[in-house]
Amino acid sequence: MTIVVQTVRSTLRSRLKSSVFVAIALSLFTLSGCQSTVPTATTTADRITFGTTATISTVDPADAYSSIAGILLHNLGDRLYVYKPGTTELVPQLAIAMPKISPDGLTYVIGLRQGIVFHDGEKFDATSMMFSLNRFIKNGGAPSFLLSDAIETIQATSDYELTIKLKKPFTAFPALLAFSGTCPISPKAYEIKAGSFKPKEFVGTGPYKLVSFGVDRIRLEPFAQYWGDKAKNGGIDIQIFSGASNLFNAFRTGSIDMALQGLAIEHIKSLQTQATEKRWQVIEQAGSGMDYLSLNVNSAPLDRLEVRQAVAAVMDRSVLQDRVFNQQVVPLYSLLPNTLSEQVPSFKTDYGASANIEKATQLLTKAGYSKQNPLKLELWYRSNLTNDQLAAITIKGVIKKTLPDLLKIELNGVDSATAYKNLDKGAYPMFLLDWSPDYLDADSYIQPFVDCAKGDTTSGCKEGASAQQGSFYFNDRVNTLIAQSRKTTNPEERRSVYGELQAIVARDVPFIPLWQSKDYLFVQERIQGAALEATQKISFSRLQKR
């Protein structure tokens, strides 16, 4: 019996110090486990076998920074706060309540659960939680900036009370504490030392223990002393496949119980089509990832507002949805996904739902372009990602068909690693990229794009998130609004602030949102308890065979 989980994007991440940057165009998937070198049936009746094509390089929470590692840590560890199943509502997990926040928004006091032990038998308390968060910051792993940028000090103010002081007010801080890497780990098993990591070991407090970590298999077993709801299965086996076709065939033939991360678009379509006949469920929901164009506002001719607005007007998202992704993505008209209540589809309001050729023509004509003097633009994409290439070719084809005499697109491909090294150097006028948030809050979609720590209206952004994204956009009002959104705890005020931010982005066009990913979960009839969370996580402990 089998389950397949997939989001239509691969998760190749590259983070540049104080900004989050996800790179990859398709196939982001929800993960959980991997075992067995060859496709085999589950070794025990009540064990669940997962398959994936993803390489899991580390499960050290201070260094793990991929979606697949996040799913493993979701089940191996606990966090202070988690999302209530099926919602985006934060609820306490290791904390006993939501934090008490000082009037200035800088100090968070968090009471902790008692009677919890780590996988090695050590006691969980405020001191071990302080150790874990300090290690996350000081060991300097890939995601360390998430906490180091926000936190001033962490103190165990009693045996079961943690007090955290922030550098600046940050309303979304509790959501950040739900990030998979903030789980506590046993101080007996780890050390605080820059660059010190244990990629193939994990000693936490979660419902599963990591018992083996191999090149092509990982094995999890239920933790008998777990404080919460016990696992409903005998363990999880994760098997790593060499390619998408092997993973697809293993699921289709029932030799594995779940397939996660790695199915191609045609595989998803095939499994959807066969669902009724084969009697597996198809669970589909909007994902949290998005793909977009980053426009270098310092690069001529994109330094002209009319040119950027014309590019926004000519984008036809429905063509990308149909021709490239076979309806496995959703058109996106904001930097915020439609799963967040603060989203306002400003690009749809300003430029229309599909290509607005009349508006694009007016803008280009106003900018001085004509049949005799067409606008020429470079569009860059990651050449190692097939779906990026297909999307870029499609965008060029649509523009060639609708504006053949006014806008000429030149395509250029470069591998992901090179792209990430050169984005903040201003090497690319326009680049097709993708993004996944670290925490489910509007802040994680806005600040990492348009915030600027140092810059001006003349020279653009010199230091900060916008520069790292390759846009170099600077807007003092935007910086003020981001700071305001991080201070206020009033939901309506935050909604108003994010509404204005989205309107400004649509007007100034430093980025053009294109599509939002979809998540798919294919579940065999004899598997119960499978669900996709808003965070793309799966809780293994709820899975069981009937």
Quaternary structure classification: single chain
Average pLDDT score: 90
Structural class: alpha+beta
What is CATH's topology name of the largest domain?
A: D-Maltodextrin-Binding Protein, domain 2
Biggest sheet features: 10 strands, mixed
Number of H- or I-type helical stretches: 17
What is the CA-CA span between the terminal residues?
A: 10 Å
What does this structure look like?
There is one protein chain. The model is unreliable at 1-43 (pLDDT under 50). Strand 17 (375-382), helix 12 (386-402) and strand 18 form a beta-alpha-beta unit. The chain has two domains: 31-260, Periplasmic binding protein-like II (D-Maltodextrin-Binding Protein, domain 2, 3-Layer(aba) Sandwich), CATH 3.40.190.10; 288-517, Dipeptide-binding Protein, Domain 3 (Dipeptide-binding Protein, domain 3), CATH 3.10.105. Strands 1, 4, 11, 12, 13, 14, 15, 16, 19 and 22 form a ten-stranded mixed β-sheet that branches. It has a four-stranded antiparallel β-sheet with strand order 7-8-10-9, covered by helices on one side. Strands 2-3 form a two-stranded antiparallel sheet. The N and C termini lie close together (10 Å). The chain contains 17 helices and 24 strands. The longest helix is centred in the C-terminal third of the chain and has 18 residues, at 491-508. With 546 residues, the chain is an alpha+beta fold. It is globular.
Short characterization:
With 546 residues, this protein is an alpha+beta fold. It folds into two domains: 31-260, D-Maltodextrin-Binding Protein, domain 2; 288-517, Dipeptide-binding Protein, Domain 3 (Dipeptide-binding Protein, domain 3, Roll), CATH 3.10.105.10. The protein is built from 17 helices and 24 strands.
